[in-house]
Specification:
With about 210 residues, the chain is an alpha+beta fold. It has one domain: 2-Layer Sandwich (BirA Bifunctional Protein, domain 2), CATH 3.30.930. It is built from 6 helices and 7 strands, in the order ααββββααββαβα. InterPro entries: UPF0637 (IPR009403), UPF0637_domain_sf (IPR053707).
Amino acid sequence: MSTSTGFQQEDFDVFAIDGLDQRMEAIKGIIRPKLEALGQHFAPALSVATGSEMFFHVAKHARRTVNPPVDTWVAWAADKRGYKKHPHFQVGLWGTHLFVWYAVIYEAPAKEEISRALHAHLDDILAIVPDDFHWSPDHTKPDSAPQSTLGKEGVKKLVDRLAEVKKAELLCGITIDRHDPVLADKDALLARLEAAFTVLAKLYNLSLSRA
């Protein structure tokens, strides 16, 4: 993230701008350069951690014609052409917080296999993932729940749902409130993201292992 100084309040204020064109212009000018820098910064480390070359993709929001984006992100996947069909990593912003995810979203064709692998390694996952990490069943909503609240049964339900429901998704990671001072401290933020990715890369590798 050599081109930026972390994230400021103005980055989060972008999502309060009215109008598709106006908000997209702000996303492109203010947030996207920071996401590009993060993409470049973490691609080598994620490649090493997963054993697969990771390519980064910054959200373009190209299909939007009316409603302005409510969040934006950079994603890393082992596919140069795209990330949505694969387990991947994300860092992005809502108006309220920054998120760091391991994500399997509804476009992924291997959701059943991933669900089986995660189910088989459920005890390992609960040991690897800290209790203050969050889980979410839907990347289009800002809400998520900490593992400490979900417990083993709650995580199991999310994992099993991935195979049972066509539009199901699974995300695991951390959220950082927009007012947390770590966001404005580039070095501290990179260290926080690196620590999160260390955990999430292990989850990624488990999800692709033979059940």
